[in-house]
Amino acid sequence: MTAQDTKLPTGEDLVAEIDRLRKERNAIILGHYYQRPEIQDLADFVGDSLQLSQMAAETDADVIAFCGVKFMADTAKILSPEKIVVLPDMDAGCSLEDSCPPDKFKAFREAHPDHIALTYINCSTEVKALSDVIVTSSSAETILQQIPKDQPIIFGPDRHLGGYLNRKYDRDMLLWPGVCIVHEAFSEQELLKLKAQHPGAPVAAHPECPPHVVDHADYVGSTSGILQFAKTFEGDTLIVATEPHIIHQMEKALPEKNFVGAPGADGNCNCNICPYMALNTLEKLYTCLRDLEPRIEIEEGLRLKAKQSLDKMLEMASGTIGKGDLGRA
Ligand code: SF4
């Protein structure tokens, strides 16, 4: 912590200072649905990975303050190399990215030379550079359906999303064994108890959840897809099986309805809050706009290789931006 940081503004002054710096730096603040409510409320744009990538590629701001995790900020830099991209906390990683070291992924690819690599965006820049097409949970369905059924595919790093797509589209993609620690923590037993407490309430689940949770869902989709479902479901209570900070957007849009987060293993733990996303705070957002650090830097050769698979995603996903829908389970 610098001497300056000991005198950080607080409360409304902090929000006003972030606003002042945003204007002074010609910065855009992008926020993921899993960010703390106070960050979502301050962001210029809140969205899922695909929407945030699209926004990063299109913005004419000079600075992108990315309130999400590192692979998302890396993606913004890959798509907008001329911009300064800052991440409030450089330790905001992702268990899926950690599960897929580039050297091991490279060896896996080399062991299956006839397979193409369809890779979830939750991975490192190096793994993107080793992939053919990137997908997000909101674009995976559209993209997979454009690939011929007889084309062998490696899908990484999320085995639950890959397994869900395999089951739904009768594919046999080879799956990398990674999981999201947040979605993995949902408990089937606790979900069934919650359903009994709210008879008739539908369940909306993210496809990063394991099959024993997804199998109880009335709707399976990306964060933006789940939000869309929340705006249209009939009834007054919805059970939400994804990172609970998304409920903030639901409560803002539909204050008269009741949104209940699905529980983790002991029924009331906080294990469904993403510990990486939670590292970003308003104070760190302020200091990163003030100092333009920590800053994302990517070596140009690597960036260009990774950009190919991201460009392919944006091209194949065109038409799905904002739809965010993997459909019903
Ligand atoms: S919620 Fe899961 S997939 Fe998303 S950033 Fe956190 S650990 Fe990664």
Automatic annotation (TrEMBL):
Q: Which domain of life is it from?
A: Bacteria
The pathway to which it is assigned is: Cofactor biosynthesis; NAD(+) biosynthesis; quinolinate from iminoaspartate: step 1/1
Pfam families in the cross-refs: NadA
Q: Which InterPro entries match?
A: NadA (IPR003473), NadA_sf (IPR036094), Quinolinate_synth_type2 (IPR023066)
**Record-listed iminosuccinate binding positions:** 32, 49, 120-122, 137, 206-208, 223
Q: Which cofactor does it need?
A: [4Fe-4S] cluster
Q: What is its EC number?
A: 2.5.1.72
Keyword Transport appears in the UniProt entry: no
Q: Which SUPFAM superfamilies match?
A: NadA-like
* Cellular compartments annotated: Cytoplasm
Tell me where the signal peptide lies.
none
Residues engaged in binding [4Fe-4S] cluster: 94, 180, 274
UniProt keywords, alphabetically: 4Fe-4S, Cytoplasm, Iron, Iron-sulfur, Metal-binding, Pyridine nucleotide biosynthesis, Transferase
What is the cofactor note? Binds 1 [4Fe-4S] cluster per subunit.
Catalysed reaction, written as an equation: iminosuccinate + dihydroxyacetone phosphate = quinolinate + phosphate + 2 H2O + H(+)
What is known about what this protein does?
Catalyzes the condensation of iminoaspartate with dihydroxyacetone phosphate to form quinolinate.
* Family affiliation: Belongs to the quinolinate synthase family. Type 2 subfamily.
Protein name (Swiss-Prot/TrEMBL): Quinolinate synthase
Native species of this protein? Blastomonas marina
